Each structure stands twice: as C-alpha cells, then as structure tokens.
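Protein 1 of 2
SEQ + STRUCT:
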Amino acid sequence: MEIILKEDILSLGFKNDLVNVKNGYGRNFLIPTGKAVIASPAAKKMLAEDNRQRAHKLEKILNDAQAQATALDGVSLVIETKVSSTGTIFGSVGSVQIAEALAAKGFEVDRKKLVVKDSVKEVGNYKAILRLHKEVSVEIPFAVVSEDGSYTAPVVEETVAEVEETPAEDAEA
C-alpha cells in the first residue's frame, strides 16, 4: 500500500514522504491515527504542489539568512559589566547580553539563536555562534570588560597596543 506520511515516523520516513507499507499497518494504524493518508492521484498532485511552494519559501528563508550573515560578518562586540578586583564578573554574560549588544549596533537577532560555547564568568575574549538557519551560522567575537575600565582582558590590551605602535613605527621609518 502506498501512503503519504503526515509526520516523521522513526523507522519509516519523514513528513511528506511517499512510502510503501503493508496493508494492515497502513489501514489499521497509520491512517486512523492521522499519521498518513492514502496516496491517491489527487493526494500525489497536492503533495507535488505543496513541495514546489515549500521549496520557494525555504529558498527565500535561506537567502535572507545568508544576507543577514554577510551583514554580521566582521562584527565584534565589547560588553561592559561589573567586575571584581580579580577580574571575575558578578553573574555571567549570556545570550541576552550579546543580543542586547547586537541590538545596540542595529542588528535585531533572536537570543534563542545565539550559542555561547564557554561559560563567560571572567573578563576576556570569547566567541558566540549565531545560528540563523540550519545551513547558515555566524561566529561573533566579543570582549568582556569592566564598566569602569579598571580591568580589561589582556588580549584586548595587546590588540590596542599593536594598533597604537604600528603608526608610530611607520612614522619613524
């Protein structure tokens, strides 16, 4: 018996797949529970049309995600927070703070799509991954620094020092 699945079934297939099953399994379980429908010619036409329309929608979603990824490429953030004298943050920096920092730069993102690999509980440089689509993700580097500027990450200071030294060396040469 040929049927069209209406939901994912672990050992059988995925939603909108056209599969062959035994007659009893299809008539007694899949169709009565709403997990499948009989693959009549009319149902096959509807499935083909749905798949064609869905392909356009999925392509548009993918293109939008890629456009947003190119806009976010090269963006780095500096997040200021309250820090103890040893460089430990009071609390932690998570996806909410990163989403707010991105919003301040003009990029509206869903905080649920942000993934921070490491636990951010100290001043330093970290990376967050923004998953825009199952095929598109962007890595966003961010630095956590003290609000009053008394304590900054060593790597951030080195980067600033290198930038300041380069023009001075060029001027002497």
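Protein 2 of 2
SEQ + STRUCT:
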Amino acid sequence: MFSIIIPLYNKAKYVEKALQSVVNQTFKEFEIIVIDDGSTDNSLNVVRNFQIFKFSNLKIIQQQNSGVSVARNNGVKIAKYDYIVFLDADDWWAENYLEEMVKLINDFPDAALWASSYFKVKNGKNIPAKIGVAENFERGYFDYFEAYSRSPYMPVNPITATIKKSVFNEMGGFKPKLKLGEDFDLWARIALKYRTALINKQLAFYNQDVEQQSRGVVFEKIYEPTTHFIFNLDYLQEQEAKNPVLKQVLDNLRVYTLARYYTQNQYVAEFQKEIGKVDFEKQPESMQKFYKTPRTILKIKSKIIHKLHRLKQIIH
C-alpha cells in the first residue's frame, strides 16, 4: 500500500534509526526507497548493511547531489504503490504511524493528503507540535491554511505526510530548484484543490538535535531567492487576494523567513518586493517593531543573543 521515500545526504549517524522505525511498523505492506543524494560520509554503507542484514525489500537509488526535492521526486518515479509516504533520514516514526494512516485513508477517502501530528525533538525532549488545530480535534478533515494561520508549527510536516501518488504526479511533485519550503509549496498547491485529513496524535519525531547545517534553517541562513519558497509564490497571488486566511499564512511566513534578509541587507530588491506585500496591521507588535528597527541595532542584538546561546550550550 505504501511506498516510503527516504532522501539521504550525510546522515550516517541517524539513518539506521529511521529505517528501524519503518521496519518496526505494525502495518507491514510497504516498500522502502532510499535515494542517496551524493553522500560523502558512510551513509550509503549503513543503508546497504541494513538492506543485507535486516530488510531486503529496500531499494537504493544513487544520484549526484541535487537536493532533497529532486531526491524525493526520483524516489516517487519508481514507487510501485498508490500511496507515497516521506521520511527524512534523521527522523523516525512511532510504530503505529502507518496503521493510523490506513485508518485515516479509509475513514476520510475524499482527501488527497493525510497527516498526523508530531513531536519536535529538542535537547532530547519530545515537545508536542502545536499545529493550530483545536485541542479537542481528534481526527478528520481539516483546513490546512486555517491551522497554519494559528501557529508557526507546520500542520503537515514531510515526515507525517501521506499523498496519493496520482495527485503527487498531477502536481508535478516538489519543485526541483527549491532548497527551503519545498514542502509548503507542494502542500499549498494540494490544499487549494483537494481536501486534507489529520489525526491529532504525535506519531512522528522531528529531530532538531542534528547538526544545524544539515537542516533547512529558516532564520539563520540566507538562501538565494530562486531556491527559497517565499520568493516563488507569485502563482498564489490571485488566491491570496480572495482568501484572507491564505493571506495571513503567507504574511506570517514572509515576516518570519525574511528577517535575516532584513538584518543582513541581502537581496534587497527581492526582499522589498515580498515584504511590501505584508499587511503589518495584522502582525504581532513585536514583528512590527522589528522591521522598524535600524539594521545596525538589530545586528548588535543578534550578535549578543548568538553569543549567549553559544554560552548556554557550553555550560549545559
């Protein structure tokens, strides 16, 4: 029933745990496809050993380093099942994740995208993601944009998402050029056309204890505009003008993801175009003040905060 796509790039320390969490699933009808995106560490050997000694129904694709979007797309191309599930190589699932997805698909068949809630793993602690649904919401169809407008946590994380393969192909998959936000871009396109369904249980573990350079870090890194989703959402312009909830989601993402571009004065024209779309009256007062504060002051504050954060890490 499920084709599980695992993109892999230099995750030798983590990938066996991810694979083991798949093999431990209570629902067993699946295949695993690992796409090695040109790893330079021991990742590929770890996967091959797992294939030999623990799980032979595992396919390995090797490609030159091309990014996570291309890796996932290439995995889907050879997937044999009708439902696609994604798991990153440094994350893992609860053993009943697939079982709950089967139930969700059967109970809410009009959806094209199904997901669960998840834990954010930070400093070894499992922190429930507040994904913007009501506390008493258990399972069912939900409004993806409405949920995202209430919380900075992604309501659908790639490691919690199950998608119809036919819909994935219809949408053209992940956009190959995007290195950040490729997941939001795809979920948004799906949610604008199809229904989405959610089980409000933490069935996946989003590992934030990995090295920061191996994660798409929203606030701490400057991405070239063609690779950053926030600069590539013009196709939503018409829907944004008609849909206040979508507008709120996009504005929230703009003020958050563009903060670094403001402090570093990078890609000024592209920054001005995007930040100019924001209705700041509906943004928190803290963000209004942030974008009114001179860059020189923000840089000094940023350096102090960074040093304090590093000191805290050393002490602990």
